[in-house]
Specification:
Keywords: ATP-binding, Nucleotide-binding, Phosphoprotein, Transcription, Transcription regulation
Number of strands: 16
Helix content: 40-55%
Radius of gyration: 28 Å
Structural class: alpha/beta
Number of domains: 4
Organism: Paralabilibaculum antarcticum
Pfam family, one: AAA_lid_14
Largest sheet: 5 strands, parallel
Distance between the termini: 55 Å
CATH class of the largest domain: Alpha Beta
CATH architecture of the largest domain: 3-Layer(aba) Sandwich
InterPro entries: AAA+_ATPase (IPR003593), AAA_lid_NorR (IPR058031), CheY-like_superfamily (IPR011006), Homeodomain-like_sf (IPR009057), HTH_Fis (IPR002197), P-loop_NTPase (IPR027417), Sig_transdc_resp-reg_receiver (IPR001789), Sigma_54_int (IPR002078)
Domain Response regulatory: 8-122
Oligomer: single chain
CATH topology of the largest domain: Rossmann fold
């Protein structure tokens, strides 16, 4: 992202006085100023310098300011343009805005006008860079989504095939609320982005919010926005997240951590599909798809954690569960190969061999951090590796903690795997007073996996 500490601004005006006056206005250690008296001089500067903002006069020698604007947008599309005009040249300004100019100010200009135009343009550059960065943040997307997103979801396990199928189906129902469950590091936000970019809302904003990081005092301001002067410190009108994501998708990560007293306000907004800024009495309708995520189990979300049942049903019209990596180990070699190739490109390396011992050790590892942990492991290994072959010495694998209490699930007299598993589940449930969440932790599996096994074996609780 472009920061205010390295903003490069080009002033193009044939009047020396104007160039000097503007450069004096913009004297700031955060800006680097370039000046040109003609279009040819300006284009020479743009050829050898990474200019962020060009301030262009409408009336110029050699070619008009409008022609300069068109050429900039054709040859240097990343440069944002602010036009300078006289009061009698507003038709030209309107034309310039249609051609892609982002802002303008008039002669004679005031410092406040110049500063405001620069600030608005700078904010636009930041936003545009952020949107570009979002598109680059995908790490694991399957070939089925490649044309839609330009990335691949990696995995050939039955669980991943099912996940892909669910994503592609729910993406088409772009008004349906989705709840994504899974352990930390499984890629819940990635799935949410895939749903968004495969839906009819793909050309609009995807906005991600971590619910656990929102203090109660800022809840309404952040979600609904506020008006200027609504409270002490509200120096400007603020757009809330619902309004910012209008016609797009609002992703609510860690929804289970939302405080109970805030859930009521949130539910009312979801039911009414209208918001009211803090300090305003005007209702603003919105059309936003809600995708929520939690690493808590579904049952515990509303029975053990004090989560409102009506809000739970509102956000969980369609539930997608992402299995942990330890339950789909056939995906590990594919992910390993993908990440090695990815970091080869990023770091300019040529690692084309992986020792068999690496794969064997990774397949035996439980991956408490899931895909994110594997990615971090590979990144470190590629950094350390000085040859074209990855070996076990390049990986830093932590050893699982020894269980304090082990369930004696097998005896010399009983080696039937199904009976052993049933006995193991029953003992875990017994030790936890039939608390599925705690039993799943004891068994080192997810709540969903335990629930499937209970139904499969018809275990009574």
């Amino acid at each position: 992202m472009v920061s205010i500490s390295n903003l490069r601004i080009l002033i193009l005006d044939d009047e020396q006085l104007v160039r000097d006056e503007l450069s004096e206005f913009l004297i700031d250690p955060n800006f680097k100023i370039f000046k040109a008296g003609s279009p040819s001089e300006a284009f020479n500067i743009m050829e050898v310098n990474d200019i962020h903002i060009a301030i262009v006069d409408v009336n110029l020698p050699e070619m008009s300011g409008l022609d300069v604007l068109e050429k900039i947008k054709e040859d240097f599309p990343e440069i944002e343009v602010i036009m300078i005009s006289g009061y009698s040249e507003m038709d030209s300004v309107i034309h310039a805005m249609r051609l892609g100019a982002l802002d303008f100010f008039t002669k004679p200009f005031r410092l406040s006008e110049v500063e405001s135009a620069i600030e608005r343009t700078k904010k636009f550059i930041h936003l545009n860079k952020s949107l570009i960065e979002i598109k680059r943040n995908y790490s694991i997307i399957t070939k089925e989504f490649y044309e839609a997103m330009g990335y691949e979801i990696i995995g050939d396990s039955p669980q991943m095939r099912n996940l892909i199928n669910l994503i592609s189906k729910v993406a088409k129902a772009d008004n349906t609320s989705v709840l994504i469950t899974g352990e930390s590091g499984t890629g819940k936000e990635l799935v949410a982005r895939a749903i968004h970019y495969l839906s009819n809302r793909k050309d609009n904003c995807f906005y991600a919010v971590n619910c656990s990081a929102i203090p109660e005092s800022l809840f309404e301001s952040e979600f609904f926005g506020h008006t200027k002067g609504a409270f002490t410190g509200a120096s400007d009108t603020k757009t809330g997240w619902f309004e910012a994501a209008n016609d797009g998708t609002l992703f609510l990560d860690e929804i289970g951590d939302m405080q109970l007293n805030l859930q009521t306000k949130f539910l009312r907004v979801l039911e009414d599909r209208k918001i009211m800024k803090v300090g305003s009495n005007v209702e603003i309708p919105f059309d936003t798809r809600i995708i929520a995520a939690t690493n808590q189990n579904i049952e515990g979300l509303h029975s053990e954690k004090g989560f409102r049942l009506d809000l739970y049903h509102r956000i969980s019209s369609f539930v997608i569960h992402i299995d942990p990596l330890r339950e789909r180990k056939e995906d590990i070699p594919l992910l390993l190969d993908y990440f090695v190739k990815y970091f080869n490109r990023v770091m300019g390396k040529n690692i084309n061999e992986i020792d068999g011992a690496v794969i064997k050790r990774l397949l035996a590892y439980q991956f408490p951090g899931n895909v994110r942990e594997l990615k971090n492991m590979v990144e470190r290994a590629v950094i350390i590796c000085d040859t074209n072959r990855l070996s076990l010495s390049h990986f830093q694998l932590s050893h699982p903690k020894e269980e304090q209490k082990k369930i004696n699930f097998a005896t010399d007299d009983n080696l039937d795997l199904e009976l052993v598993e049933v006995d193991c589940i029953k003992k875990a449930l017994e030790r936890t007073n039939n608390n599925k969440s705690k039993a799943a932790d004891l068994l080192n599996i997810t709540w969903q996996s335990l629930d499937r096994r209970i139904k499969k074996y018809k275990i009574e609780m």
